Amino acid sequence: MSKFARLLLIGLVVLGLVFSVACSQQTTQNQDSVKVRLAEVTHSIFYAPQYVALTQGIFEKHGLDVELSTAFGGDKTMTALLSGEADIILMGSEATIYVANQDANDLAINFAQLTQRDGSFLVSREPINNFSWDVLKGKVLLGQRKGGMPEMVSEYVQYLNGIEPFRDVEIIQNVEFQNLGPAFASGTGDFVQLFEPVASKMELAGKGYVVASMGEESGKLPYTVYITKQSYMDKNQEAVQAFTDAIYEAQKWVAQHSIEEIADAIEPHFADIDRETLLMVVERYKEQDTWATNPILDEEEYHNLEAVMEYSGELKTKVPYDKIVNTDFAKKAMD
């Protein structure tokens, strides 16, 4: 055998050993990671820190294999949790109040907060300088679903600004969420309440103009929170802690990085959104302090949520904060 052939053979053997060890390590890593089935209520830039945790390997760093799915709707998301199809869900904490008021044996528990403000905006058909809520009087507002958190926040914000919903302003509520933008663009309503990226797309197309932020007007709320069943939390404390640790790390990452860097990180999850719109949305959310800087759902925010629900007539019975909120994992993550 020639010297070249011997060297080639040795090289192939070494390469095979390296490949074998690498595969073995990868298999071990996969075996050691804990699978978590996560269901989000919708897929939105609003949840940017979550996608940062996914694309930047933060969940993996904390030993988790997170399988993300989108349930498309609050009822479907909570059903996924209660039926065991999801381990953890991301949605509004108002749903946990509804579950508790149904005398559920296995409560849905809020354990880590992701967003701390409403993510919707009031969009006008024409630009309005020095906007005042009084301009809604006698107008038609294309609103959100009755009983949903966006609609409850909108009505509460109107009330805080001296507008009586349904009396001072007509509110249309029979248009599906995904059709609100097209309906407004086609001529329905004088104003519309929209989430991103639809609001920014309307502005860029010259078909609507953001005149107010529901998030800024309503104050801080536990708008979207990670929730799990009490039984899952009891049996999987290490996984819940690791998940909370990862979310906190992602929250810090978002707080410390630029708009461009955040857009780069989440872009793989929003390939259908052009760069200009993506940057516009990220900037708008970052500037209004949308994302919580830590995972603690504090009591003041919870009581603000109660006030919003109470005004809208959706809070039949109050549920004690300590009954459906667990901050132990969030506090430990911050330690």
Written description of the protein model:
This protein is of the alpha/beta class. It folds into 2 domains: 33-117 and 222-334, Periplasmic binding protein-like II (D-Maltodextrin-Binding Protein, domain 2); 120-218, D-Maltodextrin-Binding Protein, domain 2 (3-Layer(aba) Sandwich), CATH 3.40.190.10. 48% of the residues lie in helices and 16% in strands. Helix 6 links the parallel strand 6 (140-142) and strand 7 (170-172). The longest helix is centred in the first third of the chain and has 30 residues, at 3-32.
Number of domains: 2
Spatial strand arrangement across the major sheet: 2-1-3-10-4
What would the average pLDDT be, to the nearest integer?
Answer: 91
The beta-strand count equals: 10
CATH architecture of the largest domain: 3-Layer(aba) Sandwich
The largest sheet is: 5 strands, mixed
What keyword list fits this structure?
single chain; D-Maltodextrin-Binding Protein, domain 2; alpha/beta; five-stranded mixed beta sheet
Secondary structure elements and pairings:
Blueprint: H1 3-32, E1 34-40, H2 48-55, H3 58-61, E2 64-70, H4 74-82, E3 88-91, H5 94-101, E4 108-115, E5 120-124, E6 140-142, H6 149-160, E7 170-172, H7 180-185, E8 191-195, H8 198-204, E9 209-213, H9 214-218, E10 224-229, H10 230-235, H11 237-256, H12 259-266, H13 275-287, H14 299-311, H15 321-324, H16 328-334
Parallel strand pairs: 1-2, 1-3, 6-7, 6-8
Antiparallel strand pairs: 3-10, 4-10, 5-8, 5-9
Helix pairs in contact: 2-11, 6-14, 11-16, 12-13
